[in-house]
Amino acid sequence: MTRIKVGLLLSKSGPTGIWAPSAVNAAMLAAAEANLAGGVAGHEIELVVRDAGWETDNVVHAANSLVDAGVSAVVGMLASNSRREVSFALSGRVPFIYTPNFEMDLPEPTISVGSTDDLLVRPFLEWIESRFHARRFSLIGSDYRWPRRSMPMAATMIAGMGNCVEDIILRPMNANEDWDNRAIERIKRSKPDILLSFLVGDQGIPFFRSFEKVGLASHIPRCCIATEESALLSLTQNESEAIFACANYFASSRVSANRSFMEHYWTAFGEYAPMPNTYGQSCYEGVHCAVGMADAAQRLGISRLDGVPTGEVRYRSARQDSRIASIGQRQSVYIAQALGNNFSVIENF
Fold first, then answer.
1. Structural domains for the chain
2. pTM
């Protein structure tokens, strides 16, 4: 019997390569769960993985190679510098299921299993204001598409709450320690109550090390959108002091669906496997979404997955109170505090 191929497109190198090990594991687990449940009408799910790299041309080439390999859908865990290009390259050919949170933008033929940033940032800012009585904010983010669009949005929200944005800083992707030290001096002069971080992947690690080295870690809380468990493993306890993060998922979430996911994950990959995080785990959601689309296609008698109405798709999830999710539903929003090398969930919405 023929297999149903699902493509996994992710960056194993570049700033977001730090997420790849847990992402591949989570995607493999989703495919294995689907096959243990009988696949789709007896058809086994086969996962086909491609390394997208970082540069847009390479990412699009890798996406096209997945279509050439016969995949029925592409699950993408890649940065926003290539998301739209991949989405349009695959449009009319196979569904493109995008798994991370992303900036609000112009319409595109992308199926999302994550949140747009407005749905993460607003509750995070409201919590920050309540928790820290913060009035003065500085913002820092990696210099590419996502922070360039989401930081101004966040600044508008901050101003709308009657608070003040002291500075917005874009950190070059190849920034060195001297650059970080100059940026930290700039932040220090602006005297913010909060540093709101949009540093992506491994980009926050050297910056947070320098931040602690000059003695600011214990004085200015860093509230982050794209900092997760993998990054914490590269920081000391002092360097991760007063780091808070907002995401659709943390490994420490206590919802029953995540407890089941974590049990299956450690059983499958062992105690030394990379810790799941919001971006790695999102590939579990994405592959199960592709399986849900294949199930709906079989049920409705539709030959191609890109013809399946998204409202007909249900899939297994580890993020929600319920283990079954649907495309377009509101995602849970979690806020967590760094405690050493782990995040502890302290609030959810």
1. 4-115+253-329 (3.40.50.2300), 117-247 (3.40.50.2300)
2. 0.96
